[in-house]
Amino acid sequence: MRYKLALGLAGLSLVAACGGAGSETTAAAVEEGAVQAVALWGAEGGFVTPTTNTLRPPRVVVYSDGQVIVDAGKTFKLTEAQVGETVASMEKFLEGQPATATPKPGAPMVTDIPDTVLGVRAKDGKMREVRVPALDQVALFYPKELVEAKKLMDGLATRGTSEGTDYVATRVRMVAENAPGAEGKVLAWPAGVPEPSGAVDPVWKKDLDGDAASAIVKAIPAGFENRQSLFKTGSGATFVVSWRYLLPDE
Questions:
Q1: Chain-centre distance for alpha carbon 79
Q2: CA gyration radius, the chain
Q3: Predicted model pTM
Q4: CA–CA gap between residue 237 and residue 216 (Å, rounded)
Q5: For residues 188 and 186, what is the distance between their CA atoms, to the nearest angstrom?
Q6: What sections of the chain are H helices per DSSP?
Q7: CA proximity to 169, closest of 75, 41, 51
Q8: Burial of 60 from C-beta contacts in 10 A (0-12 / 13-18 / 19+)
Q9: pLDDT tens-digit profile of 119-141?
């Protein structure tokens, strides 16, 4: 069986499954005083590989201290005023929107496309998120506020790509997916990196820090859009192994 090493992390994000419809945006409280995500843009669902679905980060996350992280690969800083303006704009754009938006009647049906996820931390301290199916494809059938929210976050992504520095962290998320009959160079399992244990259905995920995190970064040092390689465990099983840096709040 041919196994193609193609991950394509850029533009993908958020691990959870698509949220259901509701009358209010979803809310999740976080510990007061910690650096918090205050605005985000990501994606959920869609026709993607299990590895991508498990590993993908938010497209953009803005933190309360001004740090902006794009695709878990680039970062730059906003001023305190810019953070405030971003949050205020996202609050305005998402105010009154349902947890899952529905396009106006007459919108063409689009399948297998990830939902756009837009979020902002409101004044009550809770992160409110709106999921928008196929926003790019049927933008004319959604409220203009949702389009503007995505445009605002897209501007931050563009800025991160053009002027950001490489984002690195001391913690990483590693994903191993079964690759029997894979084509390409298969390496011995890297020393210091835990091997998959138990059932791998369909992927095995492990968050690493310390020496183990350093070992996987050293073993697969490719650019952040293609951090993956084929490895064989001590028992002879072959996996395609991928990783990314964890975000501050993960």
A1: 24
A2: 19
A3: 0.83
A4: 18
A5: 7
A6: 50-55, 80-94, 144-163, 210-219
A7: 75
A8: buried
A9: 999 888 999 999 999 999 999 99
